[in-house]
Amino acid sequence: MTDASTLMQFLFALRSKGVTDARVLTAMEKVDRAAFIRGLFAERAYEDMPLPIPCGQTISQPSVVGLMTQALRAGPRDTVLEIGTGSGYQAAVLSHVARRVYTVDRHKRLVTEAREVFDQLGLTNITAFTADGSHGLPDQAPFDRILVTAAAEDPPGPLLAQLKVGGVMVLPVGQSDAVQSLIRVTRDERGFEYDELRPVRFVPLIEGLGRDG
Ligand code: SAH
Known about the structure:
Blueprint (H helix, E strand, L loop, with lengths): L3 H13 L5 H9 L20 E3 L3 E3 L2 H11 L6 E5 L5 H7 L4 E6 L2 H13 L5 E5 L12 E6 L8 H5 L1 E11 L6 E9 L2 E10 L13
Parallel strand pairs: 3-4, 3-6, 4-5, 6-7
Antiparallel strand pairs: 1-2, 7-8, 8-9
C-alpha cells in the first residue's frame, strides 16, 4: 500500500473530479491500484491518469473508474457483470460495493494476471473469465448491474437482454477514434431509459477472442 499523504491526495483528486459517493471512495481507498500495474508505471499508480497494461490495453483513469462505479449505483446485494477486465482494477473496486462480480476479457493473459492479483488481495467474490463480452455471460445472467469498460457503437443487444428489470448498465458508446459518451441504461417494466452522463475515451469493444486467448 502507499503512504498516507499520497492516498489523501488521491482521494482529494477523486472528490474534486466529482467522485463523492462515500461507498465508492471507501472502496477506492481500500484497493491498491499499484497492485494492478506491472513494471515501471506502477510508480504512477496514484496519479489520475490512464496507464498502459499488456495486450495494448489501458487501465482506466481512477476518476473515470470512480465516476462509472458511482453511476452504476450498485448495492451490497447486487451481482455485477463487468465487460473488459483489463488489469482487474475496476473489478476490484466493484467487489467492495457489490455482492458478487463477474468480469470477462477477450485476452486470456489479462484474465490470468488479474486473477493472480485478486487472489493476492483476497478478493474472493470476483470470478474472471476469458470470453467475448459482447455476448454477455448467458450462464450467469441476468445481472443487477452491468459495467462495460470498452466502447461499442451501440449498447450490445445481449447485454440489454441480460440486464434484470430494475437493473442499470453503464457503458461508453461511440466510435473508437472519437470522443465517446458515457451512458446509463436503466431497465424497468416498460423498457429501457437512456441518460447521457459525460464524454469519455475508451479502447474499442472488439468481437471475438484476442489472439492470445
Ligand atoms: N476495466 C479495465 C480497463 C479496461 S480496458 C481496468 O480496470 O483495468 C478495456 C478492456 O476491454 C481491454 O482489456 C480489452 O481487451 C477488453 N475488451 C475489448 N473488447 C472486448 C470483448 N468483446 N469482450 C471482452 N473484453 C473486451
